[in-house]
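Escalation from tier 1.

The customer reports that the assembly of three entities below gives different structure tokens on two consecutive runs. Tier 1 could not reproduce it. I'm attaching the input and our single run for tier 2 to review.
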Amino acid sequence: MTRRLLSWAESAVLPVVVTVLVAFLAAPLVVLVATAFTQTPYLSFPPDGFTLRWFEGVLSDPTWRAAAWNSLIIAAMSVGVAAVVGAPAAIVLARRGVRFAPSLTLLIMIPIMVPSIMYVLGLMLGYNELDVSVPTWGIVLALAVLTTPYLVRTLMAALEQLDPALEEAALSLGASRLRIWVEILLPNVAKSFFSGVSLAFILAFDELVVPLFLAGPDVPTLPVRIYSSVAYNVDPSVAAVSSLLVLVSALVAVLSARDNLRKPTTRKDGAPDGGA
Amino acid sequence: MTAGRNRGGARRAAWLPLAPVLTLYAIQFVVPMALVAVTSFRRHESAGEMGGFTTDNFAKVLQDPYYLGMLGRSLALAGETALLTAVLGYPIAYALARGPRWLKVVLLVVVMVPLMTSSVVRSFGWMVLFARDGIFSTLAGPLGDGPAGLMYTSTGVLLATAHVLLPFMVLTLYGVLDRLNPTLVQASMNLGASRTGTFLRITLPLSMNGVVAGMLLVFATATSAFVTPQLIGGTRYRVAATEIYEQSINLLNWPLASAMAVLLVAVALLTMAVYTRLSRDSGASGATGIIG
Amino acid sequence: MAELELVGLSKRYGRDLVLDDVSLSVQEGELVTVLGQSGSGKTTMLRSIAGFVTPSGGDVLVHGRSVLNAPINQRGIGIVFQNYALFPHLSVRQNVGYGLRVRRLPRHEIRERVDRELDRVMLTPYADRKPGQLSGGQQQRVAVARALVLRPRIVLFDEPFSNLDAMLRESLRRELRDLQKRLRFTAMFVTHDQREAMALADRVAVMRGGRLVQMGAPTDVYERPAHRAIAELLGRANLLDCEPATGEDGRALLRWRGHTLRTDDDLAGAGADPCVLLRPEYVAVRPGAPDPPAPNQLGGVLSSVEYHGSSRLAVITEPGGGTLLADLRAGPADPYLAPGDPVTASWPAAAVRVIGS
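Tier 1 run:
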């Protein structure tokens, strides 16, 4: 960045404003983490004393562990479904391999534009009509609908950024289509695909509305369990669980921020991006 | 691009990879939506029982001040949230786009962490802050909300909802500001404009599309916000989404819940249609593009 | 037999005919450059040969056999792409060895051949780098090595130097020419740079509006363009619209703005308004007005001189307002030739080329 003169607005006001906003963004999360260490049996901020017993209690409580496990399994399965149905679609659409590709792409994005409460309500009515209780895979499929758009979008963006000449070069060197996918195209989109999968997983893991409407109290996911604790009998152990989740988000965010900024944003003189 | 591209058979086979996703959407998305649409025209007999077809539900929602107020509150909340996030998000996005590297890293983390944390957890954090004896209420006391705290108030719900949606706004604006050609700013200053003048005449107008796109995105998402109003607003501050939950899960009045959902979706889709058009025109990739 | 032959090749996109009935043949070991502006169809032609474009009509023959139905990955035609298309996730060595690995050659043979090829293009020290860590010129060499390591009979070059600066282009051009003569592969090289096209080529094919408008040795195409547009495409040109006349001796001659032009060309087929090409380098300039008026010379005023280092380009305006370009030969600059000076331009009859208008 070149040296420059700062106006008063940028030199004095902006830092203050940004600091306040950063505090606003961080406040609720910081408060939760702090509260989780309180010695009082109720939530107290600033925390009263210091103890790890809420964390210990939560980590050894079978119901919390079951909820976390449920969330992990359900999120993993739904992302798996989303990847299996989304990847072939993304490949075809990125290549404009079918007619109306742009409209179809928009169609696939619709679930993130429609309030999820509507189709979740519909699913609930549907299972009710069939007179069955919602099986676990019902939640998995509902979450898959929610995450597929993100996966398709990420993969498509990565594929569209690839130089089409790469494929032509490989063809001219004698490679088969399958080989080109495995050796040339997929390695070059793997990173974006992985970040798409991670994002989809986080979304599925955090989702409340879908399992809240569909699942009874028997298969609570972590957000459902947190929700009912917060709504009905809140104590510092909920803060402890929340802190653990914040910690995980922070780790992922730091990793992805580093990654995001390391990536060169522009390609110079048409040369392919560095492989490093 | 390839030799077989124009052959009819190859064209037809090209649809095959779309079959799984379309099937999933048909069963898990289209059918449920249709079911809600149909249900919204059924008569509510008693809890969980539905009769013949009627338009009473829509009449009720659109005429009964209680339900109409609920819809109005949802729209008002969405509009206020959109405005608030734009005002709060712009400085962050600006600093993110123009600031030094270390600041970018810090801001990106600060924006990403809430984005990746469940909204249940985030709303819970605000509950602690807003509690009767929480520091936020003590701080906000002189501002007129009194010692009763921000729990169950429109201000509390607004602040927490804005917090939940702020990352989307920041990322949308960042996408636009980051792509703004820096030579335009240099040209403007070379022509004699001050930094502030350059910002007001060049940067702000050129990023206005992003502001509008971000506001529409936030608006559409906020109309159906459920978690935050449910936890912070509780029974005292109810919006359309939480009322749908109440009607469908607790009162089992599915037709009424469906009618409200249909109206909510209509508003959201309309907003998103404008958003898609706008973001396509302005080249703003939108938050979904950036996080996606 | 020709190594590569195009027979009536056409390509239509909707209503646009981007390649219009192109026929040409390239001999074994020959380097043909295809010169044309963007939109002339040259790239479409190259891509049709490679198989990336399916022609709407015509045929592509390699050694007399049609390759249109051969899959792209089995045509055995090497390609060097404009932006090199190096695989970003593979090292230089892996990029060069890719085609050999695809062909399942034994590992030691792959290594040997890749090493030899890297040595040939002077990239041995960079073998383990990724393409992103190389300069443009180095990437270009990797792309050439990657195509050549397979020993293709035919190699296509799609404007491979267009992203490089002028100095580098010139040296790479010479390297490529040497390599091609040494390895004796048949090459087709697409470019829009007329210097590059002429410097490299055994023969130049000039494309315009989807058609092949002229093909021949660089000197032929330069000296005897079939069309005034071709004359302009290949370099600076005075294009003089003349009228036919008859001299006192009864010989046919041409008149341009009252000046008399004699030519060695046959004027029989020149038509009613022949166009004359007079290259600036054939126009000699001396100070002062013409003494006795004579054919193939005219008097005028030097209106500007553009300094080009090795030469200077003069614009001479004759009394009627017409302008003539002339190259002032290198050497100690004539101190008395400055804009505004009266000058005489003259040229030999052999330099007056009559071309179709």
